[in-house]
Amino acid sequence: MRMKAFKAMAMLFALLVPIIMISGCGAKTTKQEEAAAVQKTVVTDLAGRQVQVPVPANKVVAIGPGALRLVCYVKGVSKVVGVENVEKQWPSTGRPYILAYPELKDLPAIGPGGPNSTPDAEKLAKVQPDVIFVVSLVDRAQADELQAKTNIPVVVLSYGKVATFDEDVYKSLRLIGKIIGREERAQEVIDYMQKCQQDLHDRTKDIPADKKPRVYVGALGMKGAHGIESTQAKYPPFAAINARNVVDETGKTGSVMIDREKLLSWDPDIIFIDAGGLSLVLEDYKKNPRFYQSLRAVKTGQVYSLMPYNYYTTNIDTAIADAYFAGKVIFPEKFKDIDPAKKADEIYQFLLGKPLYEQMAKDYGGFRKLEFQNP
């Protein structure tokens, strides 16, 4: 009996060994396949650094002004594993990428965030991303230091000098696309932005300067809300449509705070007010109605509202939408086929997957003519 039991056990063992071996080989093969699917490659980031990254990266974080927005444009939201505190705590108003993807606010915090913050290496490492994308917060040496502290590849991105239609933005989008396996989508976004830029330019390129109305934009945000004196030379929406921006006469570029007397001397034909500072302008109008009533644009009813697009750096979607509305106002014949609200929704839909103009208009009043009533 014992001999028969022993032989039975031996036969059962002989049958099980191949099964165990096959099962073990199968597990090993699966791991090998997973490892083969994610490969290492070296990329050059916008700081000129050579960084070895896994491709495709399946878990990422984006820190610094505008980094998360670019990841959203490339349809990388599902790969984001943590966001900065400011993305969670600031109101979603004025940031279309958060309006489109409110679920981002539910992700773990990876540091304070903000334009002058310091990356939190410990919190970044805790969510175990494959790659850290960063804009503005670090220079080349600091990026190397953060990478050494976290033992996670750090890839520096950039919005460049212009942001709205800037080659550095396109390079950043391509880089994100390559790293997260969304190269085709990244190129689609770049093509769309360049198509918008070309369309805006072509509509107005042949208009002589002396045939263009003289225009001004005021109440632009600059580290906070400001009144009508806050403006910008080479203002991107105006530059995109070849508008005659009176501030360009200063020879400056970027944000400018002007004296009221200068605005009176310029006396532009059309004035645009950034909705982010509109309440300050209306409050000031109650105190100084004579100043405003002295302006030609106010007297002729040529004052319009634009949606603010600078919130944690440039919301490129809203900036392009503003350019189309400004074009419709300044050069109505050249933009007669454009419905600014529908165009804005087309832009938001393409870049962020949702039509967001209605919400933006609810928050800021939308594209409209402003009426200055006597106080």
From TrEMBL:
Source organism of this protein record: Caldanaerovirga acetigignens
SUPFAM superfamilies, per database record: Helical backbone' metal receptor (SSF53807)
UniProt keyword Repeat, yes or no: no
Alphabetically ordered keywords of this record: Signal
Family: Belongs to the bacterial solute-binding protein 8 family.
Domain Fe/B12 periplasmic-binding: 59-334
Keyword Signal: yes
Protein name as annotated: Iron complex transport system substrate-binding protein
